[in-house]
Amino acid sequence: MNWKHIGLTTTGLALSVALVACGSDDNGGSNGDNPTGSADEGMLSKEDILNDLSVISGIDPGAGVSQGAERALEAYEIDNLTLQTTSTSSMAEQLNQAIQNHEPIVVTGWNPHWKFAAFDLKYLDDPEEVFGGTEEIHTIARLGLQDEKPEGYEVIDNFFWTEDDMGEVMLEVYEGTDPEEAAQNWVDANQETVDGWIDGVNTVDGEEFSLVLVNWDSEVASSNVLALALEQIGYDVSLTTVENGPMWASLESGDQDASVAAWLPITHEEFFDEGAVDDLGANLEGAPRIGLVVPEYMDITSIEDLKAE
């Protein structure tokens, strides 16, 4: 395999290996051993939560979910909490530690994500609809790609799978498998799906094709799987991991060929310039969601419940 993986960090994946793996049900809850211990320790009351909670644990400030959290604090007039922005892996580590200690925590959340398989979590209701409606994960190409690399363009345009497909790869990575290996395992088990992306496409002879992504578990899964599909028709594929802004900038400048990691219309709204890139549409069947997420053992149901009385 002749991939060139440029800048692909593994901090979040290393954390995932350290967590206790367990099965998941359709609602994202845990089956089997529950790392939260919530069944034994009971629910945390709203009073206990507000007494102990001072921050919302977010990810990088450029992410739409972080900006949504800032808007939520304002819309719901929550002045007893502040948003603490950090890396995705640091947020996940904070979540893990809080759950292990049965402590209150609020994190910026999105799905698909392995944390819903690892822990009993729930979204807080958002009656003001601060976080907006349904998200989609789109495939974005640099301008001119269709003319210059028509074979690769056709494959990325055909790329489409389900949240369950993505979840299989993410969960295997969460349990400790290398992302490339987890992607290969999925391709081996789902070659008919891959054939639907590549059948009838002309082959190439070692031509380079670059994919850029943000280091989110969902995008690591999709990018590695798509890279394998492109490799099957003869491309030499590189994966480059950057932050949100640079991902979009690299597509606009033509430094990168494509990305399957564009969350629209909310998360990446501030970066998306319709005339500067080629939007090929959604690549995932299912409705990704963003919002504020808490462990099930916290006896609150709405963002409104975070406001001190």
TrEMBL record:
InterPro entries documented for this protein: ABC_Gly_betaine_transp_sub-bd (IPR007210)
A Pfam family per the record: OpuAC
Record-linked Gene3D superfamilies: Dipeptide-binding Protein, Domain 3, Glycine betaine-binding periplasmic protein, domain 2
Domain ABC-type glycine betaine transport system substrate-binding stretches: 56-188, 214-308
Name the record gives this protein: Glycine betaine/proline transport system substrate-binding protein
Organism the protein comes from: Shouchella xiaoxiensis
